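Protocol step 4 of 6.
Sequence for DUF1656 domain-containing protein (Asaia siamensis) entered exactly as in the expression construct, tag removed. Do not edit the line below.
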Amino acid sequence: MSEVIDLEGVLVSAFVANLFLALLTLALIRWCFGRLNLWRFFWNPPLAQFGLLVCLLGLYTWLL
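Step 5 output, structure tokens:
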């Protein structure tokens, strides 16, 4: 992925696209964990979700 994405003349950083992908992935993970009731294994689910978001964002930035 390039460093800058051109959307109809508006230049958007690739980091924003990576953040959007990370948020979509996190929404899918949250839905799956909610359906399977896996959040009960976490002491602090919001903190775990933030950690997942940071890890996903780093992964997408590194890979893409």
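Step 6, annotate. Helices lie at 14-36, 45-63.
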